[in-house]
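Changelog excerpt

This revision adds worked examples to the README so contributors can see how folded entries look when concatenated. The first example is reproduced verbatim below.
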Amino acid sequence: MSVLLLRLAGPMQAWGVTSRFTVRDTEPAPTKSGVIGMLAAAVGRRRTDPIEDLLSLSFGVRKDQPGSVIRDFHTARTLDGKTSMPLSNRYYIADAVFLAGIEGDHSLLEGLNEALRRPVFPLYLGRRSCPPTQPVSLGLRPAPLLAALQDEPWQASQWFQTRRHGAFKAEVLIDQDAVPVTERRSAYASRDVPHSFDPRRRDYGFRQVERQWVEVGNAHPDSHDPMAELEEAQECS
């Protein structure tokens, strides 16, 4: 088994699980269904194509830069401008950076790694309006999923690392089955396992998600930040 690591960063991300009708919410971190959908797009699969091999992958994510949730009050009209469409509230995570990992067969991950570097369909972070800011794949690691998420260097933006003085306690959300029994602490159910993306019969199942914390940091943070004094003054005002 190997682990393929992904850096999920962009101006906005949206990872919905319970979105319905006029309220399009987002989870505070990437979902398994959203990441599997991105992998399927990279290899060129359509919504009606099978995804059983991708469902065999274990999934975890580390919140290196949690970002903040913002709301878009969305209005729309028909092309001729005569009819208003239903108003909607759409939520996004702004200015976030996540480290995601998928664990599985080495040959399968090698193909996914190559596809992410040369995707068939465009990649996006949960919604089509949310493209990633830079190459997504960080490559393969010869380690178990939990260890890979614990050991990978901090992926947050430099300004965030500087503001946190080079250290941060990051939350890790990971498939419970990928965590040794002796290291399990607490788990919750998440309905984000995509049995089918087919618009005619979308089907999602549950998984148990383990929540843990890991210390991440940069041994040599940038000591020169010309904006630091200004930011401190704004926080005190």
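The second example, added in the same revision:
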Amino acid sequence: MIHPTRTNLLLLKDKGRAVSGSIGILKARRLALIREFLAATLPFMRSRDEVRAAYARALRELHLSLGIEGDEFAESLERIASRDLGVEIVDRSVMGLHYRDVGFRGEAVRSPPERGYDYRLTTPHLEEALHLFETILGEMLEIAAYESRLKRLGNEIVRTTRRIRMLEERILPGLRREIREIGHYIGERERESHYRLKRFKELLTGGGGGRRAAP
């Protein structure tokens, strides 16, 4: 325990108020982080469901296309239609938290003429499959960005919760205990001083009343 003086008692009380204020600020920040996390979770889950459904449709259309056009024809189109997406990693921030967003230059989904082959020679099944796979590619990049953001928010929520718990369960109770102990010590010391002063006055009063006047 620190030295039990009134100055230290006042300092401890000020520190206790500061800690209580910090807890309030951290709780407000955690609540804002949780709201941001929940707001990002819904589109993230929706995107995953959409990708799963689109992938099933794309495989079905591709299977139908291969049955008509054959594997060799599809492989030749793959070499023609391939491209460099130019994926970019961009640093972003949300509520002061830095995370990395994934994107790319241009659009993921191309029109049939932009794919570099004569789409009039292909079946609608192949065109639909390509359209769906390109759509999935764009969705996957968005999911990657959501995952990075959600992971950063989740880690910060956990870290903030630990700080709140440490302040509430360790720091603040310790300060309150020291404040009680010092307050009790100072109170006992003041009562003892008051008792001594009272006894001293009683002795002075009693001694003055017992003197006899000279003849």
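Reviewer comment on example two: The first strand starts at residue 87 and ends at 94. Residues 124-209 form the longest helix (86 residues).
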